[in-house]
């Protein structure tokens, strides 16, 4: 199989994984008594990793529209997991921080992720070398697509892409 054919197969496998993840995201999971969908959990995790992040920066990091981010943030605020506060001196910019309950939920989610990784590691029978190659490959694919597609909104190399963006 040629390299372009392999990349095409890899992308198709990523779409399959996306559909599986989408199905998983539809089922809420409870962390310390708070029910969250996967999207909410990972939004909370990103806020925890970047305390004081703005909603705009959160949108960019999650490759979401500002509207979709606002809806996710509203849900987390309503559940008492994060605070949305206006930045001093800037009435248009909101900064996001975790509440104490948000910290507890995030910690419970991290423990769940760790146990899930242990579960998967015990069933996949992959060597550290195989995993390292997979991770490097995924990092490169994500880097390519985030730089040339998600950031510009145009898939480089498309025939209908404006000249200068191919």
Question: Topology, please?
Answer:
Elements lengths: L2 H23 L3 E3 L2 E3 L1 H12 L3 E2 H8 L3 H13 L3 E6 L2 E9 L1 H25 L3 H23 L16
Antiparallel strand pairs: 1-2, 3-5, 4-5
Please explain how this structure is put together:
The protein is α+β, with helices and mostly antiparallel strands and 166 residues long. 63% of the residues lie in helices and 14% in strands. It is built from 6 helices and 5 strands. It has helices spanning 3-25, 38-49, 55-62, 66-78, 100-124, 128-150, and strands at residues 29-31, 34-36, 53-54, 82-87, 90-98. The longest helix is centred in the C-terminal third of the chain and has 25 residues, at 100-124. The chain is globular, with a radius of gyration of 19 Å. The two termini are 25 Å apart. Mean pLDDT is 88; it is low at 154-166.
The 3D shape can be described as globular
Helix content: 55-70%
> How would you state the average pLDDT, rounded?
88
Order of helices and strands: HEEHEHHEEHH
Major β-sheet strand ordering: 3-5-4
Q: Give the helix tally.
A: 6
